Amino acid sequence: MAEAVARVARRVNEVVENGGHHLDLSSCALNAFPTGLYLPINAVADKIYSISLANNELKSLMGKFFTTFKELQELNLEGNLFERLPDEASSLCNLKVINLSRNKLDKFPDELTKIQSIESINLEGNQIKDIPVETLNNMPHLSLVNVKLNPINKENLNLCTVKYELAM
What we know:
19% of the residues lie in helices and 12% in strands. By secondary structure, the protein is α/β, with parallel strands linked by helices. The longest helix has 17 residues, at 2-18. The model has no long low-confidence stretch (mean pLDDT 91).
């Protein structure tokens, strides 16, 4: 535990001191985003364009995470325990890439369909049965939706007008 806390502190200090654009808190045994990080990172939060929280034990993120890191373009939440995203996730108006592979999602995160800038959505290895093809068709920049290793109901897919790659 102490080693994981020290790892988080080192990584945050590096970003704050160097004005980095990427915050990597992957594999830090986190079960929540540490609320104590908001104060030190607040000064550089608008310069952080990429965050990795991969391979932790996160079940959710508070709305404050999404309002603090509003300039995010890439978010890696792979290998956690997410069952859903909070409504505030849709406020990431600059988000281009999100990785939610290997989580516990059983429903396509509707919050993602409200983000017009999104280009790539990775949902591989969840429990999603249906995807909102019509809504995804109307997303202007979407180029990839990865739903491999999900129990997708293929009979409900009308792929005739799909303008993005649907990896199944």
